Amino acid sequence: MKYLLTSAGITNTSIHNALVELLGKPIAESSALCIPTAIYPFPGGPSMAYRFISGATANPMCELGWKSLGVLELTALPSIKKEYWINAVQEADALLVFGGDVWYLCRWMRESGLADLLPLLRETVYVGVSAGSMVTAPMFGETYDNPATPFVIDTGLGLVDFAMLPHLDHANHPESSMANVERMAAEVPVPTYAIDDQTAITVTDDGTVEVVSEGQWKLFTPS
Question: What does the H/E/C string look like for 4-73?
Fold first, then answer.
């Protein structure tokens, strides 16, 4: 599988070009399934899921001009025939995984069976936004703007061999200040990329990792 792990979607030309390169063809010739599941635990989750699917969020993903676009709702998968949804996933060129609650997303990635299928998809491009990117790591951490509980670390899906922290130094995400991120990264036993909303990380099917950025980022390595 190939990965485009973003903080806020396809926010600039460099990230857009990286997506096209990973797809190996224009977006207009590519099919995608969007996964809104992570957003439901948030206040207003259902309306935010609709806005994501309809291309009305500030995170450009579904509105990029895909040849076809479908919805893959992870919480529904255990109750339908596996061959139906597995075929749909295998036929898609890209999976667009929205942000939200990383723990909720990780749970349903596993319970739905999608986590087991993903490593078998050689040509598919996994495109993550925020929590949708974080969940791919061996370990993920969530930072908080609270001195008593500055961060929480848990086990991710291990689809890539590094961790990622999005929204670096964003005005609307004070919990993702460089100081908070640095403290948390020191507790994570894998390399950790802190990236802002103008940055993404690509992973090709041979495991090559590259940073694509028109903004700011930093790599923390375990001591």
Answer: EEECCCCCCHHHHHHHHHHHCCCHHHCEEEEECHHHCCCCCHHHHHHHHHHCCCCCCCCCCCCCEEEECC
Yes or no: say if 112 and 75 are a contact pair by the CB < 8 Å rule. Answer: yes
The pLDDT of 198-218, averaged and rounded, is 96
213 versus 223: the higher-pLDDT residue is 213
Mean per-residue pLDDT for 201-211? 96
Query: For 1-11, how does the pLDDT look when each residue is reduced to its tens digit (9 = 90+)?
Result: 999 999 999 99
14 in Cβ contact with 214 (< 8 Å):
yes
State the residue for tokens 């703007």: 145
Cβ atoms 194, 181 nearer than 8 A: yes
Average of per-residue pLDDT across 40-66: 93
**Which tokens hold the place of 216?**
């700011």
Q: Where do the domains of the chain lie, and which CATH numbers do they carry?
A: 2-220 (3.40.50.880)
Which residue in 133, 66, 124, 49 sits closest to 90, CA to CA?
124
